[in-house]
Amino acid sequence: MRHLALTGVLIALTACSTPAPTSIPPATVEAQPTGEAPSQPTPQTDDDAMAEMFTDLPTPGRLAVLGADGNVYVLGSGQAPLALTDDARFEDGGTSERVYVHPTWSPTGWLSYVSVDVAEGVDVIAARPGAGTPPVTLLNSDSGYIYGYWSPAVCDGGPDCGRFAFLMGDEGQIGFYLSEMTSGSPEPTSTERLRLSGSHYYVWSADGESMLWYRNSTAMSVYDVAGDAIVREIDESFGLFQTPDWASGADRLLFTRQVDGENQLVLREGDAQSELSGAFPGLAAFSLSPETRWAAYASGPANSIPYAGLTLTRTDGSQTFSVDALDHILAFFWSPDGSKLALVNIEEAQPNFEANGRLKSLSSRTQQQGQSVLVWYVVDVETQELTRLEEFLPTGDQLYVLQFFDQYAKSHQIWSPDSRYIVYAEELADEDRSVIHLLDTQNPGQNPLRIGEGRFAVFSFVGN
What we know:
Layout: H1 6-15, H2 47-53, E1 62-67, E2 72-76, E3 82-83, E4 89-90, E5 96-105, E6 111-117, E7 121-127, E8 136-141, E9 145-150, E10 162-170, E11 173-181, E12 190-197, E13 200-204, E14 210-215, E15 219-224, E16 229-234, E17 245-247, E18 252-259, E19 262-269, E20 272-275, E21 283-288, E22 294-300, E23 308-314, E24 320-323, E25 329-334, E26 340-348, E27 354-355, E28 358-359, E29 372-380, E30 386-392, H3 396-403, H4 405-408, E31 421-428, E32 433-440, E33 449-459
Antiparallel strand pairs: 1-2, 1-33, 2-3, 4-5, 5-6, 6-7, 7-8, 9-10, 10-11, 11-12, 13-14, 14-15, 15-16, 17-18, 18-19, 19-20, 21-22, 22-23, 23-24, 25-26, 26-29, 27-28, 29-30, 31-32, 32-33
């Protein structure tokens, strides 16, 4: 396959996608682009109307959906769809006046989302869907929201106490905020800006009492929440990567160090450190499987993507294999049970591709010569089998998450809790609308299941 320059690829993909009212940026200071949406459905709160909007989920867990009407919905298997908001607004031309973005689940049942209103600014909101309690506004700001990540554990403030760390664009830098809340109060227990820096990536510990911070691409440290203090500095000459990975329960820290100007993937366990790769050039992306038995890593051109050379290695060094068939990888995500890795590759459209025993029919806009599309694959880590699943054109919100997947992989779950289904948002270019699809990785011959219209969706970490 010929080389696909990232800029050209993303322009091509975006040209075939309807611009989202707001898009999801990485953990750097960037303006949040606005765009014109397609014809907007009327917000729905009637149960029968919502039941017609969405298909019942075939899997445990809940989906938070950014609807095509700009509102937030929650879907659950065997449950009536729940509208968390109903006041999104669009001007006649389709430009958003108020829209909801950035849904993020907590493993303990909280869901955060963000209201972007041209007159009232940005509201960061947390709710417990179905609990019968009002949502909590964590922050109102004129600054842009960037990213959020929930603590995986219940905090000391009560049986449903939650902690939410999020980033805002403040004073031309990154403001790092921490909120604590319970569902019994309409106000957060606390919301504080803890730090201001040029870039700020972070990973929660399993007990929710500390975080691994990586700031300004130079300083890595462990932050204690209760003490509001740095309790450990990681002394290393770091390689070129966006965010480290940390399995705090096993005290396993994954990052790249610099070796003669190149990256080397290393796993630090307490005071011991092991090398998981040789030296390789360019930008590194990597992640530990949930049970920490495997590490996946890939490299791209310096300061750029897509990635090539995806390698999976056991963290004990006993086994390594590469996925050589794919050389323009945009993203990869571990299944919750660690048995599979979902991959997104950038490829040229194959309008005559015989997919799953049927003739694949792509829209006329993707049949242009040289048109790029994204393709879902899944690799089984035990058998090393690579399976091609489906081509798609992502929505704007979906594309941003994929571009910065190593940041979102810990906080946003594309896999169903039973490690079977993958959720994604796709533009149907010829129909001028976007839909939410589920891919059944156990039955790759099946068509994707259409859940309903929407711009983005994310699974809960646990079942209903």
